[in-house]
Amino acid sequence: MSNKKVATKIIQSLSFDPWYNLALEEYLLNKVSENQMILYLWQNENTVVIGRNQNPWKECRCSELENEGGKLARRLSGGGAVFHDLGNLNFTFIMDKKLYNLENQLKIILRAVRKLGIEAEFSGRNDLTVQGKKFSGNAFYFDTNSAYHHGTLLINTDFEKLNRYLQVSKEKLNSKGVDSVQSRVVNLSSIKNSITIEDMVKSLEESFIEFYGETTKEFHQVIFTKDVEKLYHKYASWEWRYGETPSFDITFRNRFSWGDIDIGLKLENGYIKSSVIYSDAIEYNLIQEISRLLEGIPFCKENIISRIESISTNSSNRTIIEDLKRWFSTKNI
Fold first, then answer.
1. Average pLDDT over residues 206-210
2. 3-class SS of residue 222
């Protein structure tokens, strides 16, 4: 499909409210048309955003955040918790699913950063780095006919707040070879101190246009249409952000190369009555599918492994399936 034929649009939100910005993101995802690519730019003020399957109390010092006027938000995509303030710029590529091309999307971001005189690169599974430190985390969501790829760009974020609000396990930090969140991230302004949010917005727009051709831009005022208002109430709700944290009869925790996993099981008469899985894995759908498949089966190692093995997976999910099978095979259950 030729780039020139793709219908494009740039939308910049004028709201700093995470619940509104995430509602608008999902609204655009639901409304994106065939053969359309949208670059959505947005900022949140004093916010922690957690991944789809994460436990908020484990990832964030929620009381401290909210007592200081901050907000907790949960996004549709998987991955880990991030801190947003007005020194951070968020981008989302929202598109007809047929147009999804991670390499092209990353090329646009990296070209924008390099235009500002900084040599950046893609690292690991979902990070953009400069001089070995992360300035952008990326996550992904796929619907039936549409998809999005979004991420952060640290320009001049308050790392004191980032370090204070985010709770990262010692195992995760050790796996990265660092002793704090702050020691593995970097503001682009510390590499080149003249960089501003406005510079990054302009550079991203130029890079997007260079790739797709001329486009239109809209500044989005806070407008509560019926659809956006419904989504806003979802993102602002206690149920979506925190959910229930039931008591479990047994829990299993481990850290793998692809992320942390925390499985909580409620048992009844030797069967798994309910299953909740918290994880920062990017593969949000796979984690939810495993949780569903464990419910209703006898609580024994062979049945758990068999259920996990029954999942049809693509190559990127196969590592997770094999790791979980090996892990459970070592359990005395």
1. 97
2. coil
